[in-house]
Amino acid sequence: MSGQSHDGFTPTGTIATAADRRRVVFATVVGTTVEWYDFFIYATAVGLVFGQLFFAPLGQNSALIAFATVGVSFLFRPLGAFLAGHYGDKLGRKTVLMWTLILMGAATALIGVLPTYEAIGLTAPILLVLLRILQGISAGGEWGGAVLMAVEHAPKSKRGVFGASPQIGVPLGLLLASGVMALMTVIAPGDQFLAWGWRIPFLLSVVLILVGYYVRRKVEESPVFTELAERKEKARMPIVQLFAKHALLVVIAALVFAGNNAVGYMTTGGYIQGYATNPEGSIGLERGPVLWAVAGSAVTWLLSTLFAGWISDRIGRRTTYIIGWILQLGGVFALFPLVNTGELLPLFAGLAILTIGLGFTYGPQAALYTELFPASIRFSGVSISYAIGAIAGGAFAPTIATAIVSATGSTDAVTWYLAGMTVLGLVATLLLRDRSGIPLGPDHEEEQAVSPIYGMSRA
């Protein structure tokens, strides 16, 4: 097989049949949707219930503390990325993906049965944070494996659209999390939602994990890793090699993601949900309609993400990103003026406009990252870059936004903070050459090792 062209099932990252392609894409979408549903259901609950049920007795800064727990999980993403990167480059992409799915599901389901502060005191928020940390470890390992399974299986001319399949797991997960939470506000309104309604979406994770596990078992290992294993060319210490030869590339790639992630976590981190529904705030909308608006914006995010992956195969990853940063900047400046009207339709419009730019700066990311790193250390490279970018970007974006509004009484400074992160992502993108279509297999490690950073010949 190693002698076939890039149109067959070879280490250059392609597969043989349309059925194989559909199976890989379907498994990637299902698996990442389940993972991100679990991750986002926590963030949604933070803005709606956790501050009251787990952190309110801790004082007047309970909302700030609750949002900080969203960010705590990001601090453990690098641990998940290091573990997944190491074992993903040694044992395979598929094995790691199975374990990350199980870990995420178990942690999410346990949150659904966790007693509140009223029942067990300080033990409740401590256990909640520990389970959130497990979610962070899982999320840190999930993305890299899903991305490589999708892109390394793709035909060279369709890496962008194949790579968009794990990316749409984020808006799909947000759509599912917001939709299920919104449905529960109808089934269990008012005090019932606080008493038991919020728990159902967490317990639903058990069913979703079983579905995701079954689907992922049916997918073959990445052809690039299979070729590495057959040749016994797997890196012995992939993380050590990554930082010895590609440290600056990891930092720049991380900053590309940070620019997207900080802005995206205004909704995926639960900030807008909490801000718009806070009964003591200036808006005070009901939970259900706001959750439906967020769910609607997840649809526009999904569509723009898919389109951006597709168009990046035609105009290149770098050009797509540049367009995306410009669109995202416009969305940032439109967001709060529309949200602060206190009306549902403008709130939805603000979120929908924002998600167009978010999609353009997220859709091509899987293909971009995969094409940046050599085959033998690729899992480590994409996972760790993603994890560091998540910390620099979205980890504490909701906490920072909450602190800014608390200190200034206005969202203006939040807008400038998000604009600054967007410009940072643009600058990082401009530092990278476009490597669309570069061969991905182990036969081309020398070519892959040439630095994509402008002004450098090798990493």
* Rg from alpha-carbon coordinates: 21 Å
Largest sheet: none
- The outline comes out as globular
Mean pLDDT reading: 86
- The percent range for helix content is over 70%
Describe the structure.
This protein is mostly helical and 459 residues long. It contains 22 helices and no strands. The chain has helices at 18-55, 62-75, 77-90, 93-112, 117-120, 123-151, 159-167, 169-187, 191-197, 199-203, 205-217, 223-231, 238-268, 271-277, 287-315, 317-339, 344-360, 365-372, 378-392, 397-408, 412-430, 445-449. Helix 1 (18-55) runs parallel beside helix 7 (159-167) and helix 18 crosses helix 19. The longest helix has 38 residues, at 18-55. The protein is globular and about 60 Å long. The two termini are 31 Å apart.
Key attributes of the depicted protein:
single chain, disordered N terminus, about 450 residues, mainly alpha
Give a brief description:
With 459 residues, the chain is an all-alpha fold.
Which helices and strands appear, and what pairs or packs with what?
Elements: H1 18-55, H2 62-75, H3 77-90, H4 93-112, H5 117-120, H6 123-151, H7 159-167, H8 169-187, H9 191-197, H10 199-203, H11 205-217, H12 223-231, H13 238-268, H14 271-277, H15 287-315, H16 317-339, H17 344-360, H18 365-372, H19 378-392, H20 397-408, H21 412-430, H22 445-449
